[in-house]
Amino acid sequence: MTEGYADRDDPSAYFGFPLVDRPGEELLAWTTTPWTIPANVAAAVNPTLSYELVEFDGRKMWIGATRRVAALGGGAPRAKVLETKQGSELLGWRYRATFDAAPAVTEALGADGAAHRVISWSDVGAEEGTSIVHIAPACGSEDHALCITEGLPMIAPIDESGTYLPGFNDLSGKDWLAVADLVFAALEKSGSLLRREKITHRYPHCWRCATPLAFRLVDEWFISMGATYEKPREQLSAAEKAGSLRYQIMDVVDNISWLPSFGHDRELDWLRNMSDWMISKKRYWGLALPIYECEGCGAVEVLGSRAELEGRAVAGLEALEGHSPHRPYIDEVRIACTKCGGEVQRVPDVGNPWLDAGIVSLSTMRYRSDPEYWKRWFPADLITESFPGQFRNWFYSLLAMSTVMVGSEPTKTVFGYGLVFAEDGRQMHKSWGNSIEFDEAADRMGADVMRWLFAGSRPEENVHFGWNGADEARRKLLVLWNVYAFHVSYANGAGWRPGGAASSVAERGAMDRWILSRTADLVSTVEKALRGYDAQSAVARLEAGIDELSTWYLRRSRDRFDLSTNEADRNDAFATLHEALLTLLQVAAPIAPMLTDAMYTNLVADGATGSIHLQPWPTARVQDWRDQALEDAMSRVIRAAELGRSVRSAAAMRTRQPLALARVVFGGATPHAELLEILADELNVKRVEPVTDASGLFERKVKVLLPKVGKRLGDKLQAVLAAARSGDVEFLAGGAVRIQGLEFASDEIEIQAIPREGGFVAEADGLVVELETALTPELVAEGDVRELSRAVQDLRKRAGLQIGDPISLYLPAAAQSLAPYKETLMQSVGARSIEFGDAAGDVTDQIELSFGATAFSFRRTAG
């Protein structure tokens, strides 16, 4: 119900109930639902509040002491307080009501209507109305519960269509929303109406069609949930649990894995607070309740099968012939009462749809017809549904039916997730212009992009679905596609085919072994996540794997795929990229089935192995690839490269400018020579020098954070500050330090790395990187060559040249200092020749080099 509340303008009324035993006095009540006034049975007061007898415009009315001004409005100053009583003193007072003469009311309350009385309700407040609440038990759940407790009669005014029943005079036959004026007229005629007004309040509406809802009294069938005890569950006796279904279900809840974990607590909370489970509905369609209640002797029977019904039938069985046991056919069948022998018809109710949904683990798995088959499949491995409502609906009904029928859990795991909202955070509505139809999304985004977006979201949070989020998911998948496209393009250009010559994995270079080791980790990590129904973690690891393959491995290995490189090393690079890419695609296939299948079938030799979804999970194939020591060493290299880039930025040094030396403290085992070469190339330095002691690279200064430690230091404060300034500090594990014999945690200090004069240093995670930034003429020239190479490559791309298209490059005479690097430049830009002078090609651009602005051009030459 809470999901369907909305603000609504309704008529409200202040009206009186004349007291039977205190002539001339009345109770002043207030309501925002005037249609319920004819069904009034009682008036509720709070026994702890004060009430006043007020004389106003010739009437004497009892009203909450704090509500006089609100109830009487502008006339409040004319009111005279005659008497004051506690609410407890009003209890039991009898009164009459305007509609007591209506036949339906007379039948329920008696001819004198004296059944009306004042009752106690602690929820009556002093902030609204008159602090006297009109109670109509057939028109509201709280009113109904109160009158059950008080043993009061009930008056049901409307039928299932919201139409007033016979016996209510002029109101009979009219819709409940259309009777307000008639009710007010009757109140005014009887002298009970004080005043009426409009009020805006929260009112329940149908969540499907937004129609206001009316509560009405009906007879329904319930499953008793049993007692609730004011003590921990573990302290309940066996007898107490046996008599309370809610606690039996709670024990079953404990046996289930709930994802996310808070689902466990939510379900227990629902079970602790829920009322008896209503299992019937007043509908034409639905599961026909097999309950037969004899009108003659009152006996109740529940039939267990169609065969039993056919065996017990004494009339109407022919109407069921050829039909399933649903209305209207089953309603024609009569059985004989086993007690009195009379004909008995099925009760007209149908089952609550959640009753039907709750037996799915039994009804769909041959529980009664083939118990051995059912045992093989019960309980289910997983059920999944969106959170809202399911803890009290499907999750609950499954638990209840399974607990009652077999005494155990219906599933091993319950996976819940949030809702799909629009990208603006609101629900999707066409009228708001923020809804996206599935077909439109599938056409514009692609189904795999949608799956990636959903799978990568936190299940406990609502998904804000829209084009921007889809673009982000597509961008991540495009990185994978670009790796695939690179592999296909270069493999075709080199004539490489899967299964071609390549070294064993153990004989390949460090970069190849590293990416294959990371791929093996990818397989195990994603498998573990998927087995635990953790799609979000699986997607996060897949995205990290795509990044490792693209941003580190392929970027660092790109030159190895060129035809001019060593053939054996080129074959190793192709084989490694192929193996890593195929494996990644297999692992990503459950999330992006169509995209991965398209790439996979094109990558395998002649598509001979069929769809990616027919392949075994690659655990066995990759188990020998794992090399944890290499992964750890490469991780330090990658982190050192990140620090080196930050040092370049701090030194305002161009990325393509080679430097002579990088000094690195690795904070552990020094990576072997091949990894140091990789780091040197990544840092664009001639050499990496491992250093074991960072003290020569920078000085660590400690700043004590006074707001955190000043009070506890007391008279030692100045000594500690002086020692910190002088560097008299002992550095401890975990970022802590010791100064003057006192230890300071990492959050109580700030450690600053001060480079030596002229140096540029970065430090993090135990790693320290220093770059030597002094430049020689040779280093400057190399930097110019790299900048020029990048500029020529960009111009080639803009000119529409393909990778293998040769060119002739033309440079001005001022660039003669680059002549020693002519061969390197030719190889990097695909040039057959380089000329220094005044000649020019067809395509021209300009770049800023160390010796000034430099024009360059090229002309495509014959292949």
Could you name the CATH topology of the largest domain? Answer: Isoleucyl-tRNA Synthetase, domain 2
Shape: elongated
The class by helix and strand makeup works out as alpha+beta
- Count the domains: 6
Question: How does this model look, in words?
Answer:
There is one protein chain. The chain has 863 residues and is an alpha+beta fold. The chain has 6 domains: 2-204, Isoleucyl-tRNA Synthetase, domain 2; 233-279 and 356-417, no CATH class; 280-351, no CATH class; 467-624, Isoleucyl-tRNA Synthetase, Domain 1; 698-755, no CATH class; 777-860, hypothetical protein PF0899 fold, CATH 3.30.2320. Helix content is 36%, strand content 21%. It has 27 helices and 36 strands. Strand 28 and strand 29 form a beta hairpin. Helix 16 (467-494) packs antiparallel against helix 19 and helix 17 (510-531) crosses helix 22. The protein is elongated, with a radius of gyration of 41 Å.
